[in-house]
Amino acid sequence: MGKNMEAKYRTLYDAKKNELEILREKSVNSIWKPAFHIHPQFGLLNDPNGLSYYNGEFHVFYQWFPFDATHGMKHWAHVKSKDLVNWERLPVALVPVEDYESHGAYSGASFEVDGKLYLYYTGNIKYGGEERSANQCLAIMDLDGTIVKYENNPIIEGVPEGYTGHVRDPKVFRKNGRYYMLLGAQRSDLTGANIVYESADAVNWSFKGELKLELDLPDSVYMFECPDFFELNGHDVLIVSPQGLKAEGHDYHNIYNVIYVLGKLDIDSLTFEVQYYQELEKGFDFYAPQTFSGKNNERLLFSWAGMGEVEYPSDKESWAHCLSIPRELTIEKDRLLQNPAQEMKQLRLNSVGAELILEKEFVEFDNASNRYELEIEINPEDNELFGLELFASESEGLLLQFDSSHNTVSLNREKFAAAFGSEFGFVRCASLVIGDAVKVQVFVDASIAEIFINNGEVVFTARVFPKENSTGIRVFSAGKLTCNYKKHELAQ
Ligand code: FRU
Questions:
Q1: Whose CA is nearest to atom 1 of ligand 1?
Q2: Ligand 1 site, residue 74, Cβ cutoff 6 A
Q3: pLDDT tens for residues 10-28?
Q4: CATH code, 440
């Protein structure tokens, strides 16, 4: 292997003297580090893994490459929380030192079995060139938090006949007394699919087959990553990250995108009868989400608030990405809605609010820091174009614009000195029927905004890298408009 490859495929244990301290130092004063979003101290974070509420605590693991803001040898980093908002960093959960995970402990999910938390993950194997394989592996966390890799790993060696080495991201669930493992896969003809294994004891698995899923996706889809499956309000829900989609109307404008599918799964025939599917999020930085069951059995989701193949301004500081805030999923009128988890309210400190009547082009609220939650209801009256500007200053601003003549909402992140990702476009757009009022809830945290519109009907996640004084919040419109707002400062 070349020198660069070797540097990329080192584990934490191969760190040189002071290397980690130097990395930590490089970003410790970054103005872009979030406060209440799970993020790496240094290195690159990607997918959330092993999400669970277990033994009275929330556990979040995430894909982590320690040595730079690039994709390399993936470890599972680990944080936990009692309240879903204050997180404690724990020692790295999985360091890929074994032959069966020679090129990384890739993504996976967890499932509680006999009082222990089973962590399923993919042992990534690379040979020279494009050649690769994958093993499915298990690690077990017990009640006192000790994590041990299963002694007879891998639990599934290699990939089944008919698929390439791209088989990964196990999600385990139980149905009719048996365990099922859903995996992302690539067929030998280089198209994407999901495959299923089954087991009576959650340890010994046999290949059951491919999930039959009739979606009208183009043949260009070459891989399905990070499948997630759950039941909610009488629906079966599949969330998956297909690679190779092409932009279509307002959909699929990121290089990689996420869809959700509502329907009915018949596990015996492996048929997922599709009732409806749609892109899950409309922002720039949302991929590989995973869900789990919260304290009250509500369905919670965390996502990677990042995107592959895009260079981020924080890369220069040797850290990259964060997770989304936890979101609660519900189904209303046969659509999946995403809203901030109830627990996020615990972060609220001082709240200010008022009703505003806008007479001129814009009003700006008093706001000095990019860490807040904003709830705002806008009554546009007769204005066709109106909206919000966040991270605003003379030269910068993230623009959320509603257009009632076209029934759309768009988000533009071009106006920043550190604008990035131009090759993938600066604007994302969604259809939205704009009635008499629109409701917007926003979480802003240093370099991320998560925007929930009309109770989670449209959601945008956007990373932006503002100057320190770009903290303004403006409401704008061509003419008179009224709005009601509440701004909460957030703790941490
Ligand atoms: C999705 C993904 C997964 C894989 C992991 C590797 O972002 O490509 O399919 O397991 O990241 O870090």
A1: 288
A2: yes
A3: 999 999 999 999 999 999 9
A4: 2.60.120.560
